[in-house]
Amino acid sequence: MVSSLQLIAAVVIFIVGQLIAKIIHKFMVKLLNKRGVDVAIISFVASLTFGLVSMVAIIAAIFDLLENIKNSLDKSGIEIPYPQLSLHLNKEKNFAS
Predict the structure, then answer these.
(1) How far is the CA of 27 from the CAs of 10, 18, 30, in angstroms?
(2) Which residue among 4, 29, 82, 97 is buried most deeply as judged by most CB within 10 Å?
């Protein structure tokens, strides 16, 4: 279904995202330290940026993996059914009993 290369690609996306998050975290700490910002605020902002960039990396890796799974299923002609509800209403003019 999903080749090992596609799985490795998703893992690489995640790892690169984590590295970028660490670089941004260090940059934010240095920048805020130079400007004389309070340590608590530096910690909060740096952690927030690290968390947000990490989240984007995780979402990108999962999206890539799911997209590869969907393409593999499409190539194999496999469709995943989903429940569907059809509602038919009769148009009666008098609803009183």
Answers:
(1) 26, 14, 5
(2) 29
